[in-house]
Amino acid sequence: MLLSLSQWIQSIGFLAAIRESALVYPVIMTTHLSCIAIFGGMILMTDMRLLGLALTKYTVTEVVTGLRPWKRVGFVIMVAMGLLLGGAEAEKYYHIPYFWIKMTFLALVGVHALIFRPAVYNKTEEIDKAPMIPARAKAAAVLSLVIWTGVLTMGRLIGYYEGNKSGDAPVAELRVK
Amino acid sequence: MFLAETNPLNSSALVFPVLECLHIAGWALSVGTIALVDFRLLGVGLRKQTAAEIAKDLAPWTLIGLALILLSGPLLFSSDPDMYYLNRSFQFKMVCFVLAVLFNYTIHRKVVRSGASAGAGVAVACVSLLLWVGVVFGGIYIAFV
Lengths: 177, 145
Prior knowledge:
The complex is a heterodimer of chains A (177) and B (145). With 177 residues, chain A is mostly helical.
């Protein structure tokens, strides 16, 4: 069912046009990656602040609330571009295990937010007042770094996947560049 | 010195993608931190501090990111030097990259530190962001030419 859905998605006119275009596809990918720099860089600096490693002159509140709207903008553009890239080649991605691992990591990003937003990111003033950065804030930062590194790595590996030709269950094979 | 056939990088299928991940992580770190300064120049983001303060605090992280890029980049290049050297998109990327780094450590830094007029700040931020987007476009387009 997912397979036929992916075939239907990528047959949509403008998505097929993206796939076949020589310039639009790389431009969308550039936007996707530029947002990774901006959005990813901000996440990295927020996590480093929670760990007490960077921007220690700023309060956690300043870093979290100051960057939040821009993370949102970056996230929305990044996801929109990702949907276009994925939609344009939905059937291909359906067969790539790295794609599904990446989606799993992205689901974990949601779980992370559900757990740590109320416990850490919405309680930054409490963290600023505490004599030491609480363990749950550091746990949130470390887990965030791990999950996003996973998203990045799997995203990159998608480009290296070559399915096995026999048509059996997908086997991860990397091509030597 | 760098021959694609004898390069140990090409003996394992995993080395290239792992290096590429480091390359992209370095890019997120260096350009992400530069972008925070640029956003401040544009009047958004971390607004309580001046652009000069933000730039000073982020400078070591930008450098670490650049170091990651400069360590992984030449290694990636060495996997197939002839292809990269002749690739128009790669050439474009290198021009943008050199300009972006030069700009960042000269005019950009000067304007940020002096706290010059808002107009100058906006102009410098736009040039900086455009150059970095040029770098990533050139990098991605290597595979399309």
